[in-house]
Every structure is written in C-alpha cells, then in structure tokens.
Amino acid sequence: PCRPFHGYNRLLTSQIISYYESIHQHKKELPEYFNFASDVLDEWSQLEKDGRKAANPAFWWVNEEGEEVKWSFEELGFLSRKAANVLSEACGLQRGDRVIAVLPRVPEWWLLNVACMRTGIVLIPGTSQLTAKDVLYRLQASKAKCIITSDTLAPAVESVVPDCQFLKSKLIVGKGSRDGWLNLQDLL
Q: Which segments cross the bilayer (predicted)?
C-alpha cells in the first residue's frame, strides 16, 4: 500500500511546483475565495468517483489499542458535510462564529476541522490538558458560541459555563450523554 502513495506523491509534488511556477509567472489567476473542503477534498472525491484517481485513504487513524478508522475522500467529504450541518443547524453557528474544540486527537477532531473549513466557522483548538480556568479564559477571550469536548472533559467545562455569556451550545464527542449537551454521534 505504500508504493502507490510514494509514486502518486511524486506526481502530485511536480504538479504543485508547476502550478506554483505558473502563478508566480502570473499565468494563472488566484481564486478570490478558497475553501479546502470544497476546492480540494470534494474535487479529489469526484476524481475517485470518476475513476481518474486511485482510491487511497484520505484519513487513516490508529489508536494505541490498534483500533483503526479509515475514510476515503468521498467518506470524509460526506461526513464533514454532515458535521457542518450539525454545527450550523443543531448548534446554530454561522460563518465567522467561533467554536472551541477541547478534544484528544480522535477522528472527530479532524472531521470537525474540515466541517469548520466547509462552513467558515472559526475553529479554536485546545489541548485536553486545559484546566477549567484555561477553558474559561479561552471562552471569554474568544467569545466562542460553542464548545466541543469529550465526555471526560465536560465536567471542567460545566464548572465555568455560568461565566461565559457568549456560549450558546455545547457539543460532546463520545458515547455518553449529559444534560444540556448535544451529542455529535447522535446528531450525525
């Protein structure tokens, strides 16, 4: 499985260099707006569907226990659109709104990154080592309207929620449920 990656990467690298040189020489117009999710991910998904690109994983995650999650470009695109709908509809977020994600590096972390790119929502990543005081500072300073965290980190967030006037929704990643929290897996 590594050989197609390496061969394809060389081709991709030469294409990127060629494209960069054409832009540098003013032979190509720079786009006014660029969105990685729609301009790259969705394009690669379509190339896979049409058989013009070999099917390789767009995302491949393995944890310490050996559990794997593999998504094709099409799957990542589909799931990121669903996650974007969760952020827009269930959480009530709009383009330019800020969301803080305090998560370990689970697959949903990357999924939510792409969903935020897709919708124009500003993602503020936070490490799972943040204390309640750290979370409070980030929520107040950023004026984030949503926080996304795991069921194990939710109690620290709940302890500071009363001091966060801009926070409108709380999204939990995991199998657990908590009062006042939306569950990402249920909504997906």
A: none
